[in-house]
Amino acid sequence: MTGRPLLGQRPTRPPSTTTIPQRPPSHRTLSQQFPSGSPARRGGGGNEGFVDLTLESDVAGRYGTVPRMGSSRLRLEISDSSNDSDASPKQHSDATTPWRTSVPPRGRPQLHFDVPNSSNPGFSASQQEAAHNEVNNKAMPLPVRPGQHAPPTAEKARPALGNSAKKEGRPKPYVLEVPTLAPRYPPNGHADFYPWTGNHPEDQFSEPVIRQGYFDKAQMTQNETGTARAAISPALKQKTGLQTLSSLFTSVLAQRRSHGQVTASWAFKPPPRVTVTDTKREIWLKDLANPTISLRRLSRSIPHGIRGKVLLDQSLSKNIPIERAVWLAKCVGANELRSFRRKGVSGTFQMGGEAKWIRDFTVCVEQFVENVMGSCGEGDFKGRINYAIRLAAHFHAEYLLDREHYMDWLVSSLENSPQAKLPLWILITQVYWKDLVKYRKYGRRLAGALLGHVSELTNHPDHDIVEPLLDRLQQLLKGLMVSNPDSFVSPRLWAKHEHTMRSSLLSDDSQFLAVFEKISLRNKRLTIPGIEKKSTARQRLIRLLDMNLTDSSMHDFPKRCWQVDEDKTMLLQAVLEWSTSSYRPGSSKIFVAARILRFWSKSGVDVTESILDFLDSDVVRFGRNKTSFYHLVSELARSEHFSTPRYLQWLISRGGLYGATDAASDGPCATRLLAELPLHNLSDGIISLHRTLLDRADFSVDEEELRMRICMASMNRTLPSIQANADLELELDDLPTSDDFSVLLAQLSRSSKSEIGLWLRYKVRVQMQQPTIPLLEDWDTSPMKGGTSAITVSDFYTFRNYLELIDDYSMLADVLKIVASSNDAEVLASCADTVNLHTDTFAAIGALHSLFDILTARLPVLVEDQDFIPRIVLVSLSDLAARIPERKSIADQLSQELAMSDRKNAADACSPVSDHMAMMQITETDFTDEIEKVLASGNSMDQATLDRLFQRVVLQLEMVWEKSPEQQRSCGLLLTRLRTFDAQHFDSIMHNWTVRFLNMTDRPNMIRILGPLISFGCLSFQSVLASCEALNEKDALSTQRSTSGASKELLVLLLGPSNLLGSMGVEELYRFRIKQAHVQMDFAVEVLATIRQALEIHHTSEGGDTYDANARMLLESRSSWELFQKYALLHTESMIQVLVIPMLRESGSPNAVSVSSIVDKLLLGDSQREDITTEAILDIANDLTLPFCQIKLESMFTSEDSLMSGTEEGRSERLEAFDSAIEAAVDSGKTAWASIVPLLDKSIAYHLRRRAQIQFLALFPSPKSALAYDSSALQGRLIHAENLLRIIDTTASSATAPTPMSSNHTSLAVDIITTLSGVRILLSTSHAKQIKDALVTKWIPLLLSFITMHTSEFEATRLGHESRAKAILALSAIMLELQALDTSTEAVNGLIEHNFDLALYLVDPLPDDMRQQCIRSLRDTVSSPQLHYIFSFAANPSEWLVLSQKESIPVSNGGPGDGTDKRSHEKEKLTPFPLRKWELLGDSTPHFGENDTSLSLTLFGARRG
Fold first, then answer.
1. Three-state secondary structure string covering 700-769
2. Comparing C-alpha atoms, which of 1222, 1284, 1300 is closest to residue 1250?
3. Domain range summary for the chain, segments of one domain joined by +
4. Closest among 920, 998, 983 to 952, alpha carbons compared
5. Could you give the dihedral angle defined by the CA atoms of residues 955, 959, 962 and 968, in that order, rounded to the nearest 10 degrees?
6. What pLDDT does 476 receive?
């Protein structure tokens, strides 16, 4: 419909100040050609710049109505046409046009005298003013009738756009508009306005209309002649009058409601999208950015192509207001999502398509924010990032995004954010803080991200630069810990960052400190026991002490031991027990303990009091090495750290000595110590008291002194060159000597040995003319001054031998320091060899590094005296430096110096050795001299020459080894000289010769031939071990064992005494002892294998007489048992796998008997038992005997396995016995078994653990048998369950399920779920209060601890995750039952919290699909905030909406077969009502119908206004 043709031309309007172009008058409608009296019409031209994308031409006026001027439209057009022809050419502005109606004041209706007379345009302004004053003097008019005049509206003119598009001139369709002044009376519409449309009933002619005219209402058939009072009043006067009146009003209201109900069908549609040009799209977007243009006008159509990333970028670039940008996104999203429904798919495919589109839009939003963050540093960055954050936050708040994907992106970005962007991500994350902490899986990650960044910034090198950021993070962490402590319940996360948090976050705030400690406690409850089980302080100290037996690199060792624990009394007792234990070999432990106690005495420790308390305890009676104890106290008394007078006072207070047994060598330590104490630094009164107390015990002090003097006299006669003036007071020359010196020396007490040690040191000092005697514990690096080379090397050997026999290594250290001032190279080399042999002991004393430095400081003195360093000194010091890790650089320098010394020859020896080979004579008499001449004739040698010379020497050696030991020694020295030319090639050919030597049928023993070569340094123990191993492999493949004695000979070579080597020098024998000691500690596995092979060969030989007597004595000697003890302590696993298990494969065999005797002796010492049971082993077990108990238990299980030939019956019997022994130990309160079990084989620990698991779950009360238990039986089962839980805890770290038994994981998980379900049933049913109290206080905490230990049972498989989900649901049900209990004590609340924390710990690895299944199972039953947090489920705010539908259900009241009386009743059915967030649009269409809203009004029973 277009505008009607004009009958006249409108006069030209005066020019306006607006810049909006005027449309051509020929295309204007009638309503636009005539001005309206409404202010809204006059001011409505401000929006003419709006562009409608759905039309080709410009928009017509807002209304298409004709002003009511009392005439028809045709007459008005004619009248206007005539007025235009008579108009004056003078133009006036709208503001000064005299005929325009003025607007009355606001708040007052427009009256007839307010309208100026338009027919008299000459009416002057003064006359108007006078008339106005006259009007003001009149009385106020009567109030206007309601609705007669509409209030004036004032619209602000919107400034026109500067780049408005060119207007199109085509006509617009006619639109009928209601005049603004028309009063409106809802619901009847506007008064005085009823436009003609051509279809009115008035236009339908009929006979009644023609005869009587048209009436709006039908004629009354009966005219009212009176009032209705007569009809109604009697009814109201009755008793039911009030009910009658109420029913009348109710019916009226019901009719009103039914007539006003919205019944139109829902016709909502989002704004359509149309394809437009880029120019119009830009104009539309600019109109959208203009807040003065209403969304209703823009909703006529939306440009196509604005979606996703383009929509977000356009919103940012055009600076579209946030609300309008969200509106545009909703319009686009609603159309996109509706397209999935129009495609014909339904159900899962439709939901999947919608979810994918929302996910894609979420990714676009995330990328949009990241891109804006990437523009950091630009000028408008602040505004851009602010807009992006606000826009994304609006999308999130209105549930337009995939919230889980979006929050996962937020947390991941914060976790992986670099420090440069960290402030921005913190700012962004804080916007969603409350939403993130509602989810467990995001709240925990948020806490972890903050903790990680705090730890990283705390250790940042530029701490001062990042300090503001660190402070901000710490404030956020504190706030999060106070408001949401559940997010920090994560044992691994807490263990990783707890130390950093304690150092940086803790302050004087008591409230925050309480929160921090509470979180720490909650995480400790969830720490899996056994996996990271910490040893006790006593165990850590003993482990540290054992390490010091072989590791000499710990300078601050006493300080480290002091810092192990705050319980110093326990530390002192542990050191005394360790140093005096019979399970710790050697004398190094004595000096380690003495050094520790001396150091600790500086910190205020009373050493004397500690030793006296130790003597008064029960520990000293069992497992003590009394000799070691007396030696330790003697060393402390010698340095005056142990007070002998206080000991005498303590002894007298206890009654003193009563009989000879008290002072006997095997007497009690508390009384025998009196005879062992040194007396050299005591006063005469104390010595007299000492003698008196010993006389009471029939201990002859004179006899002891006589034996000591006889030993001194024997020693003195072996030292003829030592000055005799030191012995004038002793008068030793007149004393007899002993024929059996070693036996006499062994009978001496430690007191006498201490006196002998002091006497030997004094003799050395006098011989070296030393002015002072150094203190025992005082070591400086400077050598002793003023000494001479008075002592010979043979005298030094004698002194060293005596001090080693009496184990007085502290005096030996003093002697070495005194003798180190000698200028004799052999003496200095012997000093270095002595330190090398006793490295561990001197390190324990604290003299190792000082002695080494003193010896190395003597090298320049030797160079000054002899112009070179003797080779013997270089060899000894080089070997010693190699054994000290801190002196590795010096060792390298000494090795280079030794190589240069070996290559250095006479000045005329500058040609190769091969040039002089022809001059070599072959006679045996001068063989050595000739080889020496050849070796000295040149400074280089090729491999061929080396091979020829080597063959000549070894041939000579093979010829003379049965004839002349001296020539054999000469050959060994020649080989040593020959090795200096090419050590690598020489070692290769030497190894080949060793193999050939071992394969000889008629050859001497290894120790006679190979021993000297090893001592000289031309053959290594490693080469001999490798050769013997190859020989044993060869014998294992052959049927004839012709070389079966090689292992026995090798055993003698490794462990035998040096006196078996034959005619060799003292120093050469001593160096062989050094090589033996080194190979024993460095090649423990090879030595153990040699011992096993020797034992096996002995028992497989016919008759057994072929077993070498030396080998038999070696295995029974004291040194061998000390070596076995060292291996048991330091190489426990190697001893079990290499020695014990292989020899026990045949139970009852001689091999098994031999190794069993060795193991029993290691465990029991000299006190043998016929049969050692598991209970006996557990009785012996403590922190000092653990390795030996482990070896014995392994041997027992291995022997049982071999006895039963691999059957499970015998093994099960042994395991059952072991289980019973463990349970008995637990019941008796012993704890040592807990340290033994982790050391055993993993299969044993697994069996013990599995059995305890089954028994533990079987002890729990079940719903069926709960009433059958009385209080005593229930208490007994509880104690048993606690003991089983201790066993499970102990075996947690060592129990590994064998591969065939891995299926038990699932069954255990099922048993756990069954037990949880039973506990829930017991809590929910009405059982006795006693059972419920027992469950709450005892059983449930045990079960929670049990589940914490077995979280690994829920494997990362499908079945494992299902079991994990079921366990979490069961824990949730128990938590709800506990919350429903009437009692609310601290114990109950703590149990609820523990249950909640365990559920959190289990739910973290749960996959999302299992999590959703748990949510679906719980959504319809319970609604708990704690459960929502556990499963990371936050309900959508619109999920509570349901649609109520009524269904008619027929109900028959008649009898069977009688269908006459049938009724029906309505049943309400509630179905979920999904709220489409994307379609919640305002201003979705420019023309609203009755039910065009985003939600159908019929759902709410809406009525028209």
1. CHHHHHHHHHHHHHHHHHCCCCCCCHHHCCCCCCCCCCCCCHHHHHHHCCHHHHHHHHHHHHHHHHHHHC
2. 1284
3. 1-103+152-214, 273-452, 1241-1430, 1442-1500
4. 920
5. -50
6. 93
In this predicted structure, the answer to whether residue 519 has a pLDDT above a threshold of 90 is yes
The predicted-structure confidence for 622-654, as pLDDT tens digits, reads as follows 888 999 999 999 999 999 999 999 999 999 998
Cα–Cα distance, 965 to 1062 (Å, whole number): 8
Amino acid residing at 15: P
Q: Six-digit token pair at 1003?
A: 């050859």
Q: What is the average per-residue pLDDT within 946-957?
A: 87
**Residue 269: pLDDT over 60:** yes
pLDDT (0 to 100) of residue 165: 47
* Residue 911: count of CB within 10 angstroms of its CB: 12
Residue 1456: C-alpha distances to residues 420, 1277, 1449 (Å) = 85, 62, 18
Phi-psi region of 1190 (alpha: psi -120 to 50; beta: other; left: phi over 0): alpha
Residue 632's Cβ-count burial label (10 Å; 0-12, 13-18, 19+) is buried
Question: Residue 406: which residues within 8 A CB-CB, separation 6 or more?
Answer: 362, 365, 366, 396
Integer Cα distance of 697 and 742 in angstroms: 27
**How many Cα atoms are found within 13 Å in the side-chain-facing hemisphere of 529?**
16
End-to-end Cα, the chain, rounded Å: 32
Identify the burial level of 1048 via C-beta atoms within 10 angstroms of its C-beta, where 0-12 means exposed, 13-18 middle and 19 or more buried: buried
Half-sphere exposure of 1109 (CA within 13 A, CB side): 1
pLDDT, residue 1266, reads: 62
Half-sphere exposure of 1107 (CA within 13 A, CB side): 19
Q: Which residues contact 120 (CB under 8 A, 6 or more apart)?
A: none
pLDDT value of residue 1065: 82
**pLDDT bucket at 290, cuts 50 / 70 / 90:** very high
Predicted confidence (pLDDT) at residue 1331 exceeds the cutoff of 70: yes
- Six token digits for residue 1059: 């006196």
Average pLDDT estimate for 397-418: 93
The model's confidence at residue 179, banded by pLDDT at 50, 70 and 90, is confident
Q: Report yes or no: 1381 and 510 within 8 Å, Cβ to Cβ.
A: no
Q: Is-contact 815 799, C-beta < 8 A?
A: yes
Q: What is the mean pLDDT of residues 1035-1050?
A: 66
CA angle 367/373/378 to nearest 5° reads 135
∠1414-1419-1421 over CA atoms, to 5°?
Answer: 105
- Alpha-carbon torsion (430, 432, 434, 436), positive or negative: negative
Instruction: Give Cα separations from 1492 to 92, 437, 951 (angstroms).
Output: 46, 39, 115
Separation between Cα atoms, residue 245 and residue 1150, nearest integer Å: 120
Instruction: Tell me 609's DSSP state.
Output: H
Angle separating helix axes 1186-1203 and 1150-1164, nearest 10 degrees:
160
Higher pLDDT, 85 or 716: 716
- For 383, 567, 1432, the CA distances from 316, given in Å and listed in that order, are 10, 68, 33
Which pLDDT tens digit goes with each residue over 1401-1440?
999 999 988 888 888 887 766 678 888 899 888 877 777 7
Write b or e for each residue in 1025-1046: b if 16 or more Cβ atoms lie within 10 A of its Cβ, otherwise e. Answer: bebbeebbeebeeeeeeebbbb
Q: Global pTM?
A: 0.68
Residues 6 or more apart from 295 whose CB is under 8 A from it? Answer: 324, 327, 1482, 1483
Looking at residues 391-412, what average pLDDT do you find?
A: 93
What amino acid is encoded at 710 in this protein?
I
